[in-house]
Amino acid sequence: MLSLKRLWSVIWRILVFLVGWAILCAPFTIPVLIKYAPNGGALPLGLRLYIESVTVVSILVVAWLMLRFFDRRPFVSLGFARHHAVRDSLFGLIIGLGMMTACFAVLYFCGWAKPNTNAAFSGSALALATLAMIANTASQEVMVRGYVQQTIQGRFGLLSGVISSAVFFLALHLGAIQSAILPAVSLFAAGI
Fold first, then answer.
1. Is the pTM here over 0.90, yes or no?
2. 3 state DSSP class of 30
3. What is the pLDDT of residues 119-168, one digit of tens each?
4. How big, in percent rounded to 5, are the helix, strand and coil portions of the chain?
5. Are 62 and 17 in contact (CB under 8 A)?
């Protein structure tokens, strides 16, 4: 009975977090998506950055509200402590870039990815895409490893928190799997 009570405590918190995020984010993103990508097509980079920025801001606001009024924890508990913030941010950026570079290198050297020689280089497009990716990464980290993992971990321990949040991360990316096992394994590993 105690485990069911702890499980319910985790489930309702995560559900309130997700619903709160959807309520806060949707009015600012859905009209843009309907107007500029009605069939689910790619958005121009400027609008992609807008969507990612609204997403990260709304997730941070909802996380703060959940921590303040339900979990009674400080916001810095999500990993925003100032102690070693610059060092840790640079270290995380280097690791993330290294992982992405390694993934691309494997694809390239196996012949599965080829550079698009017809496309012209655009510094502004690269800057917008980089900012959008940083916002996307920040929103996923706050959601998955910040709130979801810590909520599970607080009631069921570190191993349960890490594995459950990795499954949650995988579920967020189901559209990228396209019924192949390797992307699913890769996404789960990235979640770990």
1. no
2. helix
3. 777 888 888 888 998 899 899 999 999 999 999 999 999 999 999 999 99
4. 80, 0, 20
5. yes
Contacts of 189 (CB under 8 A, 6+ apart): 166
Place of tokens 């060092």: 87
Start-to-end CA distance of the chain, whole Å, equals 29
Percent of the chain with pLDDT over 70: 98
pLDDT band at 78 (very low <50, low <70, confident <90, very high): confident
Q: Residue 176, Cα to own-chain centre: how many angstroms?
A: 14
Q: Under a CB-based contact definition with an 8 Å cutoff, are residues 115 and 42 in contact? A: no
Cα–Cα dist 18/12, whole Å: 10
Model pLDDT, residue 191: 84
Helix (H) or strand (E) holding 18: helix 2-36
Average pLDDT for 106-113: 83
Counting other chains too, the contacts that 128-135 makes at CB distance below 8 Å and 24 or more residues apart are 128/45, 128/46, 128/48, 128/49, 129/45, 129/48, 131/49, 131/52, 132/45, 132/48, 132/49, 132/51, 132/52, 133/52, 135/49, 135/52, 135/53, 135/55, 135/56
Position 39 scores a pLDDT of 81
CA angle in degrees (0–180, nearest 5) for 58-68-70:
100
Burial of 13-39, coded b for 16+ CB within 10 Å and e otherwise, reads bbeebeebbeebbeeebeeeeeeeeee
Q: How many CB atoms lie within 10 A of CB 165?
A: 23
